[in-house]
Amino acid sequence: MLPFSFEWIWDPSHLVFHGGLWYALSIIGLGVTYCVIKAVYDITKGKGGQHH
Amino acid sequence: MDSALIPKGVKRCPIGQFLLWIGANGAVLSWGVFAMLLIYIKGLNQTNMNNAYGFALWIWADLAVIALGGGAFFTGFLRYIVGKDEIKNIINFAVLIGVICYTSALLILGFDVGQPLRGWYIFWHANVHSMLTEVAFCLSAYLIVLIIEYVPVVLENRQIDKVPFFHRLGHNMHEIMAVFAATGVFLSFFHQGSLGGVPGVLFGRPFGYREGVFIWPWTFFLFTWSAAAVGPCFTILITKLTEKITRKKLVKDNVIELLAKISGWMILFYITAKIADTVYWATVTAPSKGFTFMQFYTDNPGSLYGLWILILEIGICGVLPAFILITNKGRKNQATLLLAVFLAVLGVCLNRWVMVLQVLAIPVLSFESWATYLPSWQEIATTILPVAYGVIMISTSYRYLPIFPQEQELNPIDEPASEAQSAEPEPETTDAGPEPELSPAES
Amino acid sequence: MEKENAKKYGMVIDLDKCTGCGACMVACMAENNVPFREDETDKLLSVSWMRVYRLTNRKPFPDTEECFLPRPCQHCEGHHGHSPCVSVCPATATDYDMDTGIVSQIYPRCFGCRYCMAACPYHVRQFNWWDPIWPDGMERMLNPGVSVRMRGVVEKCSFCIQRYQAAKEQAYMEERREIEEDEYQTACTEACPAGAIIFGDLNNPEHAVHQIARPDPKHEGRSKNPRAFRLLERLGTNTKIYYLSSRDWVRKAGDNYLKDELKGKTHS
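Structure tokens for the assembled complex are given below, as produced in the milestone run.
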């Protein structure tokens, strides 16, 4: 699974697969993190809970 | 009793009635859970699978449920990437259906393996060349995206929304939803496709095998396309079913008709590609391996696989719904609309069945015979389990969350009791009564 | 992609000699700790690494002929080591070894998804639908060189890889690298009373299998022997089992042909 396991081989399909996978997971992770942090920041700035 | 949790401006049935409904579905669910426990404890001998039928009802159910859940990604694509505004009135429901479909698929996959405790091997000891690896990763990642798309709807529950943090969180997630939706489209393209790749790469099985482009057999693209095309039909079907059960109009006709029109054209292009692929495979690929096309559909006493299945899948459940949905008349007439979406859904289910079970039924060695298979009750119970779970999820979400933005507009509360929702009159204000700040017509 | 000294272990099975006695099946089960149940009537639930098929020419009496065909794992090479089953396993629980040509099955890695079973057209891969139960006392007869499998994993013929291991260890102790033809033979080969099964290194010109099968490296191992054929050659599985038969209908039964192909020239 990782470069230090014995069955690992550096070949193009690994790069494509892991590249795509980690790219997608990063976008998701960063997006959620941004939302949570911004929510905390908004609360501290006093934007509070508005009702629509 | 639970009126504080119910969204503002809508009516819901009394909690007793609701709990009865959940209880009935819960009984079916329990039957499925019992069967599931039997499988976990006793193993796959509880099924009617055998060495000829390594893949059977569950794999079909997985493929079908994921294809039908494709409405979530395609509707998200239409809303956030293409920018179709009307879609916002059905996107929440499409996402909910997606969550149900994908969690069901992962639930089934959990017990559809011989060694469930080793399930994590597919992630840790992944073989990047295998289509199933691709499926596992993209499916799991996409389920995360679906949950992220659904969380803001949950956060809009009346009580949860009161918490400032949750309110802000939901708001922020809505703001960048396009990013998640785009990632969802990317992931869906690949896992829907890889599910098509599962039979398509089997060069030892001429019925399933397809040539293709680069590492992707044509079934890769056909599966993605059919999921995108028919997913919205499933969304429409479930919406109509929900409207029937709740006895309320929940989505305006123009939204349904827009989705139906797009779906219709998608199905038309898909079925054209599918016919072209079938013709090429029947006249070039299969004969190059020594098989005539008719060999796959004849000479199989005791087996049901005949030409009828191809005609049903492509003709009645492909061409027909496409032609209904691309016409205005077809979309506006409720009967033909329902028929079309039902047939389209049936068509995709048939396609997944053919690409899994018929592949395995057909003998490849000239001295072997057709294999037959009928699911065991444990397999059936565990396949119905997600349906019961889905009903419970939809019922609970519908009751407590603002899933349908147009519900309030379409069902104004002070309308004379045309809704048969509350069976009894409302002397007390505790049960699903109207909100105090609305018109004083009640109690 | 083959290395200099890469071996390619394979078999020649002479169907003119096979009597269908089943000794190969029994020997295989004994050698490889193959599990069995009390009621083995449903053959689709049985584990049977080697399986003898009964073929007929489907003609009525007096022209009826039959032929017995032992079928172990074909150890397909495909194109450059891409066996149909190896490429699809999501957990790398099966591997094509470029040094021996053997398709291995790694039981502790397999989580039982059964994709490889769907991929294999020869049905050589079987699933442990139950946990193996050995009758009292029989566990003392199990071969210590072969791990016993558990419920929920796939198993198949391994060309008695434990015997290859044992031969390599013996050679190492005798300070040599190469093993002789008779030092590594599968259980089925040894058990066959008719001598219908021959096992060896297809790449080694001194081995009997090479001399009989005469694989053509320029045509993916296709045999130059007119009596020889491989099962489902047209699928491109590039198998290691070469069957011999002097009967044309038997050779034809090894693959699928369209009607007009059968009328034309015979295929090897």
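Chain C touches chain B through 57 residues (CB under 8 Å). Residues 129 and 151 of chain C are 6 Å apart (CA to CA). Further analysis is deferred to the final report.
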